[in-house]
Write a structure and sequence with these properties.
The chain is an alpha/beta fold. The chain has one domain: Rossmann fold, CATH 3.40.50. 32% of the residues lie in helices and 27% in strands. The strands form three sheets. Strands 1-12-7-4-2-3 form a six-stranded parallel beta sheet, with helices on both faces. A four-stranded mixed beta sheet has the order 8-5-6-9, with helices on both faces. A hairpin with a 4-residue loop joins β5 and β6.
Length: 193
């Protein structure tokens, strides 16, 4: 496969992922790494967030982390990092920012993982908004391809993982659809191209 064909295949995967994520109630932004801090800050401002959980260990190396921290601080957000067993300080966090191991284009699904009780778990499940930052090349066309990424993660010592397809939802109570009952009401993927 030539480089032009490979690039087109990547673009098609990104478009499919964005479309499928939208179908399940999520949203996505595709931009270069340098633009990501501004986009993340804008998403937080739009939602009038004050506290933000940030899991730097799961974020892609391509994301300018210092620029993200600086931007969030300049905008007046309280940035929480290094969460331990005591989650009481995290209760009021309006958003969590994590990385992802992979994504599935066919379903708009994200695969997150890391060490047990890692910050990625708190930041992706507790706040009402989850922002997942992922590189475009981590988007796999199918679940089978994403499972390969999971196997690699497991071989590197990653012990826990979670699949996320859209915002949290349930219809357990009176068969009424509720968003955010068991996790975030909103999911936004920031794709680094």
């Amino acid at each position: 496969m030539g480089s032009k064909q490979a690039a087109e295949g990547g673009d098609e995967r990104i478009e499919r992922f964005v479309r499928e994520l939208s179908q399940v109630g999520g949203a996505a932004s595709v931009l270069d790494p340098e633009g990501a801090p501004s986009r993340i800050a804008a998403l937080l401002k739009e939602r009038k967030a004050q506290k933000v959980m940030l899991d730097p260990g799961s974020l892609p190396r391509e994301l300018p982390l210092k620029a993200l921290r600086d931007r969030l601080t300049e905008e007046g957000f309280e940035v929480l990092e290094g969460f331990g067993e005591d989650v009481s300080a995290l209760r009021d966090a309006a958003a969590g920012v994590t990385g992802a191991l992979a994504a599935v284009a066919d379903s708009g699904t994200l695969l997150l993982g890391g060490a047990p009780r890692g910050g990625w778990q708190w930041a992706s499940l507790l706040p009402p908004l989850h922002i997942a930052v992922i590189r475009a090349d981590q988007i796999r066309p199918t679940l089978d391809e994403a499972l390969r990424a999971l196997r690699e993660h497991s071989q590197e010592g990653g012990e826990e993982f979670v699949w996320i397809t859209g915002p949290s939802r349930t219809a357990d109570i009176a068969i009424t659809l509720l968003l955010g009952m068991h996790g975030p009401r909103e999911l936004h993927a920031v794709i680094l191209s």
